[in-house]
């Protein structure tokens, strides 16, 4: 008799053999530190860019006991607590948007929104490096899909010139700050191109830029003053803010369509009111954290100078081609007291394997100075480590 599970075992063996099996690390989180295998390490692998720890200062002004802690159901049934409405009102007034919608995750926002926006008469033109959740949203839609080379405005322009007239709608999709490369989309130029096409719309995922860039930390579309050109903006609450969930900003007509037809929105349990109220509380505080943002910018410039590379943001990719070499370098840094994870194929293309260093506002120059020493030593001592120039 054949083993019922043999095909699953074979598949897992294949993943293992090609070095792309993923496993969950055992960690305890403690602010900017993680405890891992009995050691305390500086966490350079998270997305908590503002370095918010659960301190009494952060809790000030938040009364958890006045909130419901348990979840109810989808927002369309009984989940739509006042906490949602209050948060959405706050987002509308912060951004000057027509409407806001809070989601349970950025993954659900991207995979739920795009099928609502794009139908068979739609062409989606997206940056080559967009996040998996956007790709899944595109796959679930019935739209035609093509990609432009990463941050290549000329390529975007030529695709639109060739194809835009054949479709009723064209959605241009980009991240504002790219999660694996740490570089920034040329948002002003993209907005300008969009304005040239009466059937074009612009979708910007600000997952990694909210909290870090722009007036009050509202992100890069705010910094570049193109909010009026962005038809859908997605921000996430689980990164700089250290909460969970996401929000989208859009015209009221789109919000009504989303509420009526976005499957992940309709068919999933709403976050409990306490979670939403806490995220709103953090968002309110985040808008006042200019000091933390300033310190983070200081850390970014320090890293650029020390490593001799262009640092665009708090995410710094150190390219180490090859899954094995990259894993080895990460292990080495872990031995030295830094929690750095290798980002390997298939998350990034082959040859682009990397250490993704992620800075947060609670780090100090001294701590970063030490990791720079080690990285520079690695560059000198281990080939083929290569820092992006
Ligand atoms: N967009 C981007 C660019 C992301 O990096 C992520 C998370 N890694 C998401 C969306 C998904 O957000 P969430 O974690 O809230 O599901």
TrEMBL record:
InterPro entries attached to this UniProt entry: Aminotrans_II_pyridoxalP_BS (IPR001917), Aminotransferase_I/II_large (IPR004839), AON_synthase_class-II (IPR050087), PyrdxlP-dep_Trfase (IPR015424), PyrdxlP-dep_Trfase_major (IPR015421), PyrdxlP-dep_Trfase_small (IPR015422)
Keyword presence, Protein transport: no
GO biological process: biotin biosynthetic process
Transmembrane segments annotated in the record for this chain: none
A GO molecular-function descriptor: 8-amino-7-oxononanoate synthase activity
Sequence ranges assigned to domain Aminotransferase class I/classII large in this UniProt record: 41-375
EC number: 2.3.1.47
Cofactor list: pyridoxal 5'-phosphate
Pfam families on file: Aminotran_1_2
Principal EC category: transferase
Catalytic activity: 6-carboxyhexanoyl-[ACP] + L-alanine + H(+) = (8S)-8-amino-7-oxononanoate + holo-[ACP] + CO2
Gene3D superfamilies linked to this entry: Aspartate Aminotransferase, domain 1, Type I PLP-dependent aspartate aminotransferase-like (Major domain)
Keywords on record: Biotin biosynthesis, Pyridoxal phosphate, Transferase
Pathway entry: Lipid metabolism; Cofactor biosynthesis; biotin biosynthesis
Subunit architecture: Homodimer.
Name of this protein: 8-amino-7-oxononanoate synthase
Organism: Porphyromonas cangingivalis
